[in-house]
Amino acid sequence: xxxxxxxxxxxxxxxxxxxxxxxxxxxxxxxxxxxxxxxxxxxxxxxxxxxxxxxxxxxxxxxxxxxxxxxxxxxxxxxxxxxxxxxxxxxxxxxxxxxxxxxxxxxxxxxxxxxxxxxxxxxxxxxxxxxxxxxxxxxxxxxxxxxxxxxxxxxxxxxxxxxxxxxxxxxxxxxxxxxxxxxxxxxxxxxxxxxxxxxxxxxxxxxxxxxxxxxxxxxxxxxxxxxxxxxxxxxxxxxxxxxxxxxxxxxxxxxxxxxxxxxxxxxxxxxxxxxxxxxxxxxxxxxxxxxxxxxxxxxxxxxxxxxxxxxxxxxxxxxxxxxxxxxxxxxxxxxxxxxxxxxxxxxxxxxxxxxxxxxxxxxxxxxxxxxxxxxxxxxxxxxxxxxxxxxxxxxxxxxxxxxxxxxxxxxxxxxxxxxxxxxxxxxxxxxxxxxxxxxxxxxxxxxxxxxxxxxxxxxxxxxxxxxxxxxxxxxxxxxxxxxxxxxxxxxxxxxxxxxxxxxxxxxxxxxxxxxxxxxxxx
Amino acid sequence: xxxxxxxxxxxxxxxxxxxxxxxxxxxxxxxxxxxxxxxxxxxxxxxxxxxxxxxxxxxxxxxxxxxxxxxxxxxxxxxxxxxxxxxxxxxxxxxxxxxxxxxxxxxxxxxxxxxxxxxxxx
Lengths: 522, 122
Fold this sequence. Notes:
The structure holds 2 protein chains of 2 kinds.
Chain A: H1 10-19, H2 29-42, E1 46-52, E2 56-63, E3 69-71, H3 77-80, E4 87-89, H4 102-105, E5 111-118, E6 124-132, H5 140-182, E7 186-191, E8 196-199, H6 201-206, H7 219-223, H8 227-230, E9 242-247, E10 253-265, E11 268-277, H9 279-322, H10 327-360, E12 368-370, H11 372-383, E13 392-396, E14 403-405, H12 407-423, E15 431-440, E16 443-452, H13 459-463, H14 484-494, E17 498-504, E18 508-516
Parallel strand pairs in A: 13-15
Antiparallel strand pairs in A: 1-2, 1-6, 2-3, 4-5, 5-6, 7-8, 7-11, 9-10, 10-11, 12-14, 15-16, 16-18, 17-18
Chain B: E1 4-8, H1 12-22, E2 27-31, H2 34-44, E3 48-52, H3 61-70, E4 78-83, H4 88-96, E5 101-104, H5 109-121
Parallel strand pairs in B: 1-2, 1-3, 3-4, 4-5
Helix pairs in contact in B: 1-5, 2-3
């Protein structure tokens, strides 16, 4: 048995065959009716549509054979595809190529006639063939008939490929559609005049339009003057995005970032635009600018605050060194120096404290369960030095759950508000401190309230109470750094709490601190 | 000739410091707020005003300075700004408001005395 030689373009032929996506597909009546017709017209027991693969022949359609495929070395068709036109083997026993072929020796086959099948590009991918167990000859009419059958099969192969390509394209398109439907960027296709031809849901959402509601609208209506950026034949999609202004259907404006790709479609210029709503990025940038500005202002104020006591210390000490004063005046000046130096130390300590608390964040806190009564007792003990503790009236709800707090920091925060109440109220008035447990936003919170009957604050003063170095209503000579409330707020917020302030000029101020209860209270 | 110096400063300690620094140069008049300062500029017609820039309660010495320099009756009065704001932009803002001189806190009483004397002599 001689295996068939390979055609010179075998690799190309195989690729074409594989790309047809027909190998190992299900039986198909379009092919089966041709093989049935072939068997009947030629009066043979076997008719096949055989496709010659790399190492097998596979039968797309078969009459009189149960095997789906046979090895290529046993294939008559592998010989038939080597040239154009019909190949007829009238008696295989007489042909040295096939005499010992299993079809001959085991199945008693004698006759073969095959006509090559042409792929759309002309590659011979297989045959339509008829086989018999007796030797036969074919007249010209029969030869022409087999050729016609081969043309019919070739047409079916081409039709199969077309159907497959359409299916593939449909899948591709649905994939692209899916992508366009789900990407967060708005995609618009515009014609040369700037009219929207199509848009994806992200673009419709961005401009506040209904489904399909952007089609037919003008770029100028959606982008105002910036439409010119879109309709730029020189634009390049690989260029950095352009910033511009978008206009929603309702007329409201929003900042956009867009990429534009001019393209040619059906011989006309079109523009594809990819648009992002950058409102959030703009807001972020604005916020960080505001933070930067606040920081700069804070630095300026801090410098100012440090220089003021230094002016007294440096100035009076220079006067004392250079001039002669009587003992009483000297003592007065030294007293000022001492007082201002203490103030300077207070300022530095408080500034460092604030910086440490800010930098440490929640990680800088040693949170644990803290008893409210203990906390307030410690706080008042620390304030004893002011000599005003007799004014404080403490009222605690019995059985209060513990706080979840850093005891030291919380004591510092409470010290700041209680000392403010003491400072900004008359010596004959009380400072009322109370605590109660309350549900707030479905969480158990503890409210600590510090209320005085002092000078109170105007709404303007209240609005600035947490600003660093701001000292509401204080005369420049009242002790204080203006950082107490800033530190207080920072500590409370780090604990996940917040403070409410009620104040009226002349009536007094009440600060209520809301803090989370420790989770394991009981 | 006896000169008159008005010191506008909201902080007691610093008002005293400026007074001690300048008392050898002439008669001293004191004011502790922007309003009082302006009132005394008009009433006392001093030769020199030393003016704190941050006068508390949101009042600015720069506004007082501008008021002095824009009123023909007081425009000739020398103004020396004293401020704990020491940045170049602060100094420029002060000079733009019409100040004749700008001194940054902390300052040396002797330097302040010399600067004030120079302004009075000019």
